[in-house]
Amino acid sequence: MKGIDTGNMLKVLIVDDEPYVLRVLKMKLENAGYEVITAVNGVDGLEKFVGERPAVVISDVRMPLMDGQEMYQMMQERKDENNPFLFIMMTSTIDKALKIWAEQMENLFFTEKPVSPRNVLNLVNEYFSTLRNSNSIACPDALIPK
Amino acid sequence: MTDFSKLLNTCRRFAPKKEEFTGRVGLILVGISLLIIVLTISLFVIYIQRKHVRELNSYGVALTDMVAGFATTGPDVSTADNLLKVVDIMGSRSGLVYGMIMDVDGRVIAHTDGQFAGYMPDEPIAKNVITSNNPLRQVYDDPLTRHSIYEFSRPVYHNGKKTGAVRLGFTKDIDALLSDSDIKGLLALATLIFSLVPIFYYLMRNSVRPLMSVNDELKNLLEKNEFKKITVNPGNEMGKLAEKFNQVITRLMEKYENLTASYEDIEVLNKILSYEKDRVEAIIDNIGDGIMVTDSVGRIILVNQTMANLMKFSRQEVIGKTINDCFYAKDKEEILSFIEKNQFYGNVFSHKNLEITLKQSEGENIVRLSYQPLLSPEESVTGNILLAKDITVHKMAQQNQSDFIAHVSHELRTPLNTIKSYVEMLMDDEVSSRETKLEFFNTINEETDRLARLINNLLNISKIEMGSLMINRDMVKPREFFEDIFRSVENQAVVKCIKREFILPDKLSALVIDKDLARVAILNVLGNAIKYTPEGGAITFKAEEDEDHIRIDISDTGYGISEEEIPRIFDKFFRSADEKIKAQTGNGLGLALSREITRLHGGDIAVSSEIGRGTHFTLTLPKEDSPRIKGYNRNHHSLAES
Fold it and tell me: Higher pLDDT residue, B594 or B181?
């Protein structure tokens, strides 16, 4: 599957302490033409978010030093108003409270592992497509993974 | 003690003894007789005195008249002298002490001889005599003898003219007055009275004998609780009294015996009730649920020990108070609102539970409260019962279990996620180079193994839970076995800059263990040592052998375990409350699994720890030739590869 040519602005940050996840998602997205940055924990992820200003952040929840939930909140505080971002949160645990919390958050897509790299790519594509067309920051319904 | 017994005791204190009573009667009789004698003598003496005075009066007047009659011839001295001599003789036996005849000027013309010869009474007495024209009787005390002097005087007339006066003085001396016959009479009377005393005493004793019997029987009754009927002639009053006494005492004795029998029954019943009460209280106290019972007006009438412990109040403090007084402000509102909702109004009441975390004084207890009315057979509310079930442990277990499930879910989904995504990448032809494809296949393979191991562990836990974990013993070379385990975790220690020490003796006997399970048991402890030791700390792995076992000591310089938590660390799902421990992932099953595995091997696990200083675990596993594994047929097993 080929990516959408959107130039240097199509930057995706993947944060996970599992190297296999980083490896496979990075490969999938890079094959589609995205620029992919990776981080191994929340602190690392937040640092790279501030430095690189990615349009999409894909992150695990359970991570050392700082978990995905806290990292999301820190990113919200540090985000650039002119550059909105989509946050894809992947979790391998069952946490009802986290799910309820995630539903209330802005621009946050919550999914349970195992995730399909194909679906993640679709989601990212859809997001950039919607962003380009409407300049909206809302997460469209079409982004629900297949 | 019954009222009757009290009465008996009181009587015992005041009742006189028999000897005392008899002696006292005798003394009283002697006293009375003496008193009678004294009274009789006194009355007699007074009578004699009065008689003497009367006699003296008439005698004195007569003698004075006679002398005055003879003295009418005038103041003839010789006649007077002769006259007075006669008077002296006549009056000496009647107590005459003096006699004199005076002229009108008061001069003594003649007088009697003897003790009072020439005796001149006091001037006023003489003056009265001179001045009076009538006979006089004057009484005065003789200043020398202190005897009373009765003086009789009479003027002497001659030819109608007063020529002088006669004076005769008598003394009233008792000794002199009591004659020998008088004294004899008195003695006879006294003797008679005295001789009457024993007769009187005897008669009186006879008449009071029934009373003495009453006394004896009362004494008998008081001392021995025995009573014998008094036998007295029923004809007289005493007999009637004794009969009545017999009847009264017999009735009282009957009542007393009935009361004693009832009292004994009551005592036995009381003991049975007391025993039953203690038993019921002990049962209620030993019930694991808190129980509080209130009466119809809401006063607390019963609280068991469990409830007292939950409320952090002593039972004595709350009995008689209301539920409102028992709980702290933080909990009160919720509890009272719950109770209000569950009040029994008519036939409708909602029977629901309230789960609440009690914040009474220190610590927290999660309790499930239920509140129900206590109904009488007539369906009226006689009180209410508040039950509190401590579900703290249950809730903790629930929490631990959901934490465990979350953890298991994470552990399962992680390799599953890798497998799925890698397979999908291969299917989507995202991987072009052969090397990468190979790498992907390897990863899928490794992750499948990881998943299989995890499932095995979960199965082991499940088997432990069900008590069906079996061990497959094999002889294992210890050095290689321990080195392999240590190497597998060494990287984790390196990352945290933890100093490692691995100490093994030159020679160690072979272990006879289930290699996979024993590895899990040791790894769990060793993994914890690294996980819960801060960066820059140190861990030591040391193995030694004794007669039967290989002993593995794993110590660290980590966070340590508090004294309160040590007894619980081997409990399934237990996780420390220490923030530093909680910061690390864990499912609370590692140590439980380690202990089960070592025990299944016939070994054990022990721990000592100090907060902030570190922890020391000792695992013992059976070695070759250990008597514990007798019967193990080593010919059928090769040495396992390590």
Answer: B594
CA A101 from centre of chain: 17
**Residues of chain B with a CB closer than 8 angstroms to some CB in chain A:** 405-407, 409-410, 412-414, 416-422, 424-425, 428, 430-431, 443, 447, 585
**Phi and psi for A62 in degrees, rounded to 5?**
-80, 110
Taking the C-alpha atoms of residue B307 and residue B285, their distance in angstroms, rounded to an integer, is 9
**pLDDT tens per residue, range B509-550:** 898 898 888 988 998 899 999 999 999 999 999 999 988 789
B172-188: average pLDDT = 70
Enter the pTM of the model: 0.46
Closest approach of B324 to chain A, Cα-based (Å): 36
Other Cβ atoms less than 10 A from the Cβ of B575: the count is 21
* Rounded Cα–Cα distance for residues B590 and B331 (Å): 37
Return the closest-CA partner of residue B156 out of B242, B222, B75, B218.
Answer: B75
Closest by CA to A128, choosing from A136, B568, B158, A116, is: A136
The confidence score (pLDDT) of residue A90 equals 92
Chain B residue with minimal CA distance to A30? B430
The partner residue sitting opposite B409, judged by closest CB among A25, A93, A116, is A93
Residue type at position B208: V
Report the residue from B430, B443, B447 with minimal CB separation from A28: B430
Are A117 and B413 a contacting pair at CB < 8 A?
A: no
Token pair listed for B540 = 């030591």
Q: How many CB pairs under 8 A join A and B?
A: 65
Residue B19 phi/psi, 5-degree rounding, is -60, -40
Q: Which of B401, B417, B439 to mutate to test the interface with A (most CBs of A within 10 A)?
A: B417
Q: Could you tell me if B48 and B147 are in contact, meaning their C-beta atoms sit under 8 angstroms apart?
A: no
Per the CB < 8 A criterion, the answer to whether B170 and B94 are in contact is yes
Residue type, B47: Y
pLDDT by residue, tens only, chain A of 146 residues: 444 434 446 899 999 988 889 999 999 999 998 999 999 889 999 999 988 889 899 999 888 788 899 999 999 888 877 777 889 999 887 778 888 888 888 888 999 888 999 999 999 998 888 877 765 444 444 444 43
Pick among B403, B404, B414 to test the A interface (most A CBs inside 10 A): B414
Mean predicted confidence (pLDDT) in B389-413 = 81
Q: Provide the pLDDT for residue B213.
A: 75
pLDDT of residue B455: 81
Q: DSSP string covering B389-419, please?
A: EE-HHHHHHHHHHHHHHHHHHHHHHHHHHHH
Q: Check residues B161 and B93 and name the one with the higher pLDDT.
A: B161
- CB atoms under 10 Å from CB of B289, counted, come to 16
Residue A99 touches partner B, C-beta closer than 8 Å: no
Q: How many helices (H) and strands (E) does chain A have?
A: 5, 5
Is B137 strand, coil or helix? strand
Distance from CA of B583 to the nearest CA of A (A): 9
CB distance B331 to B358 below 8 Å:
yes
CA B253-B255-B256 angle, to 5 degrees, is 60
Q: Where are the alpha helices (DSSP H) in B117-179?
A: 123-131, 174-177
Distance, CA of B511 to CA of B596 (rounded, Å): 18
| Backbone conformation region of residue A5, classed left if phi is above 0, alpha if psi is from -120 to 50, else beta | beta
Note whether B425 contacts A24, CB cutoff 8 Å. Answer: yes
Q: With an 8 Å Cβ cutoff, are A92 and B410 in contact?
A: yes
pLDDT digits (tens, 9 = 90+) for B132-142: 888 888 888 77
**Residue B627 pLDDT:** 61
* CB-CB under 8 Å, A24 with B414: no
What stretches of A6-146 adopt beta strand conformation (E)? 11-15, 35-39, 56-60, 86-91, 108-112
